Amino acid sequence: MRIAVPNKGRLHDPTVELLERAGLHIEDGTDRKLYADTVDPEVTVLFARAADIPEYVRDGAAEVGITGLDQVRESGHDLTELVDLEFGSCRLVLAAPEDGDIETVTDVAGKTVATEFPHIAREYFAEKGVDADVVEVSGATELTPHVEMADAIIDITSTGTTLRVNRLAIVDDVLDSSVRLFARPDAADDPKVTQLATAFESVRAAEDKRYLMMNAPEDRLDDVREVIPGLGGPTVMDIAGSDDVAVHVVVDERDVFEVVNDLKAIGASDILVTEIERLVE
Length: 281
Ligand SMILES: Nc1ncnc2c1ncn2[C@@H]1O[C@H](COP(=O)(O)OP(=O)(O)OP(=O)(O)O)[C@@H](O)[C@H]1O
Ligand SMILES: O=P(O)(O)OC[C@H]1O[C@H](OP(=O)(O)OP(=O)(O)O)[C@H](O)[C@@H]1O
Ligand SMILES: [Mg+2]
Prior knowledge:
About 25% of the residues lie in helices and about 35% in strands. The protein is α+β, with helices and mostly antiparallel strands. The protein folds into 3 domains: about 1-90 and about 180-205, D-Maltodextrin-Binding Protein, domain 2 (3-Layer(aba) Sandwich), CATH 3.40.190; about 90-175, D-Maltodextrin-Binding Protein, domain 2 (3-Layer(aba) Sandwich); about 210-275, 2-Layer Sandwich (Alpha-Beta Plaits). The strands form 3 sheets. The chain has a 7-stranded mixed beta sheet, sandwiched between helices. A 5-stranded mixed beta sheet has the order 9-8-10-7-11. A hairpin with a 5-residue loop joins strand 14 (about 235-240) and strand 15 (about 245-250). The chain is globular and about 80 Å long. Adenosine-5'-triphosphate binds near residues 11, 50, 88 and 158. GO terms for molecular function: ATP binding; ATP phosphoribosyltransferase activity; magnesium ion binding. Belongs to the ATP phosphoribosyltransferase family. Long subfamily. Its cofactor is Mg(2+). It is an enzyme of class 2 (transferase). It comes from Halopelagius inordinatus.
């Protein structure tokens, strides 16, 4: 199975990190290589531009791909979304000069809109019933209203800094995007593809969880159970020659601070908090 992955740009590092965490270590993945093997002899990684990945998957160069939803929508290809990997989150928005007269999408009728996403833009205006002239640019879209190339733009925003610096205000939301695992529809039910999706889901599930290990007096076990929220009961093991038992449990990261304090108050000792690589439920 081949999996298409961003070769550079902001999505490259988090995607490679995700593959590593899912147990798919990339072997010999030097910067300029197109293909790399993984520890799994059945899985090969293909490196491509984030914007080209939908095309590679559609054409069969790879069975699955990891890229932004915005890129898949812009490609117009019919791919099956398998897992929302929840990074690379951003919004595609319609924006116009702060001090101008465009306040709603209907104000854009008869005007020019610059964007790196012409396909999405045309679909959006068609859906809104607004007749706007969409022009394609390949970057620095925020500049175009200031050089009278366009009246408004459709572009990506995440922190909002670029819009602010260019004195542009958001007029409407066009699309919420994040990075997802996509498959060609005819490969979506392939057992290897399903395995891959499960592995990625397990990484995601583990991200906000922590593994707690401690020793606790056996006669305080009921109190221990009371302070530990969620995810089933703890695993309890005898410690030879001791009145303490070893307790292992998975808790939400946001509860760790409070739970550790409570456990100490109950008399637990040697409390160890570790990250979890994967959690298969
Ligand atoms: N603030 C953001 N700006 C642009 N893209 C973002 C942002 N946040 C998340 N993304 C996601 O990253 C994708 C862009 O990936 P790309 O590989 O082009 O990264 P890049 O760092 O912008 O590279 P380039 O140098 O080619 O502009 C977008 O399609 C979107 O899915
Ligand atoms: O809301 P913000 O956090 O400011 O992010 C949004 C900006 O980041 C991206 O540009 P990028 O850095 O990828 O440059 P590019 O236009 O050359 O692709 C995007 O095209 C916006 O311009
Ligand atoms: Mg960019």
